[in-house]
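Hello,

Our lab assistant flagged a job as stuck in the queue for most of the afternoon. It eventually completed. Since we weren't sure the result was trustworthy after the delay, we are filing this so someone can double-check. Below is the sequence as submitted and the structure that was eventually returned. Let us know if re-running is recommended.
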Amino acid sequence: MTAEDDRARAVWRTRLGSAFRTALACAMVGCATLYGPEPLRTQIPFPAFAYLTAILIVPDATLGDSVRGCWHAMCATAQVVPASILSLWLIGPEQFSEVVAAVAVAVGAFMVAVPEWSHLMTKRIAFGQIVIVYVAAVVYGRETGDVMHPIHVAASTALGALASFLALLLPYPRLAYSEVNKLSRLYTQNASERFRLLMKAFSAQNTTIALETISQTKPLQETGAKLLQSIKLTQEGVQWERPQIRPKPQFRKPGNRLQDIESQIRGMEMALTCCSSFPVISTDQEQREVLLAMELQIGLKLEQTKCFPALVDSSTAPEPKKGELFNKFLDSLKTLNPNSENQTASFFLSCIKLLLDDSTTAKKNPTHNVEKPNDKESKNSIQEALHRSKRMPKKEALLFAFTCSISLGLAVFFGVVFNKENGYWSGLTIAISFASQRQATFREANARAQGTALGSVYGVLGCFFFSKYPELRILALLPWIIFTSFLRHSRIYGQAGGVSTVIGALLILGRKNYGPPAEFAITRLTEAFIGLFCFITVKLVLQPTRAATLAKRQLSQSLGTLQEFISQVGISPDEKDMDFVFLTLRQKQEKIKIHVNQLEKFAGEAELEPDFWFLPFQVACYSKLIASISKMVDLLHFMVVQMQSLVEESLVCGVAWKEFQEHIDRDLYLFKKDVSSSLHFLEKITLIQSFSVLEREEKEICNDLELGRSSNADLCIAEAEKIISSIIHHSNEVTEKFWAEEGEERSKSQMALCQSAVRFCICGLMRETKEIERGIKELVQWENPSNRMSFYELSGKINALFPE
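-- returned structure --
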């Protein structure tokens, strides 16, 4: 059985298990509210919210996630119940009209949404509680009660949370710890298979075999990325299960450790895909045996990464001498002489070195804070500023709070006006759907509307077929919950549509005494439409966020962050500050990754979003741009790693550091000048909504003297080739110089390897920058078909209208 078969079976078992536990939690709520003792049922008059709480916590959760969900439910109850008791006592339940209830919901939602420390799930549960408390005051008036009504809402929430916790315990606990270990085993199998194929391609003696082998790694790469994402999501629940596992100075989460392995394997793939002919290097029988030994050694290392690191005693584990085989292979190579231009082989081998050397990986990814000398005062001022920022809500938090407040208030008002008894559903439909980050408004609303309709129709059909046996209606939920557990992982419906689909059926099949099912289904669909309409209207007024708009904006931010990072790449002239410089660059690199992930998410949502009267979303253009930006992020990661290794090896060799640093900075200056200016120009182009302002400008500028751009695109490409040639020439001069000096020969070989790998990264970054230019040019021409200016004339226009 292959690793892919193992993963498919694991996915099938995981989703079936999630569906079973969701059904078990809903069955517990249903049995307690439908068939439980009378005293219990009187204390839980809102079974619908118990179902909602369970659905928010259980799907795809582990035991640690359920414990965290129960904590969020407790926090939400602590925020809502005391405030609602006070407001009901001050105003009086009999005084609550449609307007008063809408205002109370809006104020309560705003107070819940403002604190940034509050988790999103806490806010969603609190929103639902607020809606139920104040709408019930309108429906029942004086019968509501000042104290008991909020307590009943809290009891319904507690029932859903308790059912969620028990469902994750029965028939056996689904531990996050076990899930992380299982996913880690699948990932290491995947990584081992990819590494084996890449080593086979590296040693291939002809191009055909090498290309066929490389093509086999592409589906494995996609699977590995999905497994790694699942590990990162699951590992957050481990501490809720085992609070004794604390982040020690050398502690690293499994997802972070495996991410290092993923990056290094991606680097090997990148090196081979850039190679035009094979074999990459000529090897004899002895060298091939050394490569095979290194392959086995890395396989053993991958086996050791399966277990959770907190329970592995590294002091007792055998530590093989991982550098010996690599040094032996490097010493035997004649091809990688100091002036070798075989950058592909150098970069490939540098990735193998990182895989072999655990200490290198830990050193390149420090977990402790590195501070500049004598900067305690600045650190104190930064901490004080952070403390002030926690007290004052940010603009984004206030905007999110206003969005939740106004949309919930309007939804409750119009929902109660339309149907007083069922006015809950307009507010509850959107209460559980808010997100602190910007979302694709139309896509989310469309998924929820379709999911609500599907679930309601299924519920009505279930009531029809089980009309003679109403006690068995809840059994009809089992196949539907299984179906929706797979549906929520689909691209069309996603989590929002899947949750709405299962809730639509639960509210009909899992309750009683709500009237004729068909009539209730129609009423709830109407209430859901009212809520979604209010939600969309407010979002479009306060945050006009189509997915395509978000993708365009995120593209600009990604390019800007990338340009900022590249402009700061360099080596400090002071050896004491080098650790701080490299750590700062790594922190900025993490920021770029967040932007790229958001860009990929928005592009995927824009592909599924309706176009309406807008231009169609250019999926192909964005896919190329995302691929190029992702490659640049990977190359920058390796560039920083190799530069740090280069610094360390130069110190071992005893090379005059300041002179060596001047040569490197000279090469980096040429590289940064070209790439940073190109990315800055592309960022400004993507920020422009319409080119009508440029077309009305009378002044024609054909050349941009500041950027050094010409109206002829071929000159730009020639300039890039010239810069690369200059970098290679300077690099060879420096290599020859330190090779001629006295020092350890092996360190000189390592230094030559690092320098050649840095050159590979620089060439790759310039190549991907040109690909991004082509992609932006295609995107601009598609969005502005009437524009007659050339791409490089636009450069001059933009710099004239928007000077620095």
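-- support follow-up --
The delay was a queue issue, not a problem with the job. The result is valid. The chain has three domains: 3-173+393-542, 176-239+254-309+322-364, 547-801. The chain has a mean pLDDT of 77.
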